[in-house]
Amino acid sequence: MSKTITEQNVRLLIDTLLTEGKRVLGPKAAGTMTLYEPLSEGGELDLGELPRRSAKEAFFPLCETILTYERDKEGVRVTDVDPQAIPETVLIGARPCDVAAAPVLDSVFSWDYQDEFFLERRRKTTIIGLACTRADDACFCTAMGLSPSDAKGSDLFLTPINGGGYRCDVVTDKGEALITTHAAFFPDGNGEPLPMAEPTLVKLDLEKIKGWLDVHFEDPLWEEIAERCAGCGACAFLCPACHCFDIVDEGGDTKGARRKSWDACGFGKFTNHASGHNPRDVQPQRYRNRIMHKFTYYVDKFGQRLCTGCGRCIRACPVGIDIAAVLEEINLKK
Ligand code: SF4
Ligand code: SF4
After folding, report:
1. Which helix or strand (DSSP H or E) is residue 261 part of?
2. Minimum CA distance residue for ligand 1 atom 8
3. What does the alpha-carbon distance between residue 228 and residue 274 come to, in Å, rounded to a whole number?
């Protein structure tokens, strides 16, 4: 038997979690947009829109300090930031295309180096996913092998039901633990699910696309698509699966901090060498890397794709580059 939860109890659950000292993140109105933000009360939760930025910031903040240093006449003191200080977190109302990216990122952040900042946040976060009943023209999760009701990556999964409220399915032990400790909010029940969203682009032959990419590192397509790419990086910053970062020391002679900040392979200086040589010195080469990394390099390395079809890069691109259209074009090639 599934559980259910009313809309009012979702908000009361958030208030309870906050009272317990947990950090709660969820969609919240922020000016003209919705963002995944820390909630200070249940009433702030706003599940109407897909948040403008992805939920990856729950584990991989835009910028974070990893150590600080100070120098005085006694010498230099370096202080590591302790990842253990990261608070227990509940991410609530995250969409399937966001949540599915989290396990994909686990692979790279626990590969040759264990990124304790990312991994500690993952360990300490319980994810309550939410099915989508609306899609827009940019959504294509179905073509990426997911769906608007895909619970992959969630610990608990909410499905809107007729008459209001949600069916709540337990996906992991973490989710079970949250339900068990807050049982009063989750009575037994099923409910009739509302019709799910129906993205327009439903199918791509991802194997075929990979096969084409594997043998078309050099191809006129890259010039055709990406000559106009402005290299703004918006696509990477909004993407739930893009994960490049830079580490920079900021400060002066006497004190400062080492920070880890998002980076993007679309930026002109991303691959600039200290010698001044840049192996990707024009924009089409950078856009090619974006596509190759997502649909062939990461597949070869980890058996996963760096795209969940959330459509954010399509909505935001200032020059109208549409990754779903690029994939469709490759899909049609012989
Ligand atoms: S590449 Fe674009 S559509 Fe795919 S997950 Fe990233 S932002 Fe979403
Ligand atoms: S958002 Fe568009 S213009 Fe900006 S880097 Fe991405 S593809 Fe290029």
Report:
1. strand 255-262
2. 310
3. 27
Q: Is pTM, for the whole model, over 0.70?
A: yes
Helix (H, G, I), strand (E, B) or coil at 108: helix
Nearest C-alpha to atom 5 of ligand 1 is from which residue?
307
Q: Which helix (H) or strand (E) holds 221?
A: helix 220-226
Which residues pair with residue 80 across a beta bridge?
A: 67
Query: 10 Å Cβ neighbour count for 148?
Result: 22
Nearest-CA residue for ligand 2 atom 6 is 235
Residue 1 has pLDDT above 80, yes or no: no
C-beta 240 within 6 A of ligand 1: yes
- Distance in Å, CA 316 to ligand 2 centroid: 8
* Residue owning tokens 């596509």: 291
Indicate if the pLDDT at residue 306 is higher than 80. yes
Distance 324 CA to ligand 1 centre (A): 9
What is the per-residue pLDDT for 91?
98
Structure tokens at 136: 């827009």
pLDDT tens per residue across span 64-108: 999 999 999 999 999 999 999 999 999 999 999 999 999 999 999
């037994």: which residue's tokens?
188
Provide residues with CB under 6 Å of ligand 2. Answer: 229-235, 266, 313, 316-319, 321
Residue 264 above 90 pLDDT?
yes
* Cα 259 to ligand 2 centre (Å): 25
Asked whether 108 and 306 are in contact (CB, 8 A), the reply is no
Average pLDDT on 286-298 reads 98
Nearest-Å Rg of the Cα atoms of the chain is 21
Question: Looking up tokens 């729950």, which residue turns up?
Answer: 58
- Residues β-bridged to residue 69: 78, 256
Above 90 in pLDDT, residue 201? no
